[in-house]
């Protein structure tokens, strides 16, 4: 059974754009495929380029793709002995790369996208939603984050990394979990807001680290219940002051917002610096506030 959740707060899209997707849980993982469907339904041209296997915790590792071993791709989504890179036989937009998330992103941008889009490059990179959160000390080790930062740092493509606290590994051809659909709808709302803000979608060398709280059948079970909070990746105890927002010059910590206060259905959105995967500075934060203002809320 597939869940259909309509976002009352979703903004209308001016036009579809070219989007490249990746993750670190694998190209056949349900979260990634559900988000692919949601983005495609919204009118975007979407290219999925993900690792052939689960590569969680790979960070920014990058190696030349190799022939798929005898076990095949995850969930038997490609047979053993398949080439180092390949596509779904019925949909060339769905691609695997038998290597790390960063390699999957690189290959998608440099090799697959030009073929699919007649030489045109992706306009936005979206990774995840990851199975499990990526906050604070987890951020440097996340392959989902690593793939997003790769797009920003080495290809100058704006990127957003999405992660969710709820979820178990689920194959693309199984029933869609409630968490997969809610996280995809929330991710679409954030992406739509950024797209509708106009180019450049994000400041140079900047990415967004987005963490969704836990969902269940009884709590945070409708996309309209969530509020979006601008946060920091690191605590900021010894950092320069943040942008002046919500009556303070210190943004809340994403761990506190998405996990500690998770029962309040808060989504943490942290501006990141692609150089070191830490929090972007106040000037860059201010630019992102201007873009996300239509959906941002303040903590009580």
TrEMBL record:
Gene3D superfamilies: Survival protein SurE-like phosphatase/nucleotidase. Residues 50-93 are annotated as: Disordered. Residues 19-223 form the Survival protein SurE-like phosphatase/nucleotidase domain. It comes from Dothidotthia symphoricarpi CBS 119687. Belongs to the SurE nucleotidase family. Residues 1-16 form the signal peptide. PANTHER family: 5'-NUCLEOTIDASE SURE, PHOSPHATASE, PUTATIVE (AFU_ORTHOLOGUE AFUA_4G01070)-RELATED. The lineage of its organism: Eukaryota, Fungi, Dikarya, Ascomycota, Pezizomycotina. Keywords: Hydrolase, Metal-binding, Signal. GO terms for molecular function: metal ion binding; nucleotidase activity. This is Sure-like protein. InterPro entries: SurE, SurE-like_Pase/nucleotidase, SurE-like_sf.
